[in-house]
Task: structure prediction
Amino acid sequence: MSGAALMAFVHHLAAFALVAMLSAEFVLLRGELTAARARQLLRIDAGFGIAAAIVLLVGLLRAVYFEKGASYYFHSVPFLAKLSLFVLIGLASIYPTLQYVSWRPALRQGQAPAVPEPTLRALRRVLHWELAAVVLLILCAALMARGIGFIR
Result:
């Protein structure tokens, strides 16, 4: 397997893992927040962060070293939009992460965290927006792969 193929495989695997974990967070926040569910959310969110770091690192390595080169990709409107959406998703994910981390003291005592309903609604809303941004990111990836939107 060539280095480019391996990098593409790792990039796509991490991207699918990222979407799966984001979806799992969304689903877990729909039901009653128990101590077990809160622990799952903490673990899944950590996995989400790891997957996001891999997607970013491997994606940048692919763009610079394994594919057509940075100058090619940085002249692509869909690539720039895709990268911007990725950064926005990352920034949006800070709020849920901070919320989940704040639950640790209650979890250490074996209790479910006491989270007000407006906070749970806000968490669900942020995850909804992140999932919507992922859909747009995938559209940008398809446009980019077809060579649409390049600035010459």
Notes: The chain is about 80% helix and 0% strand.
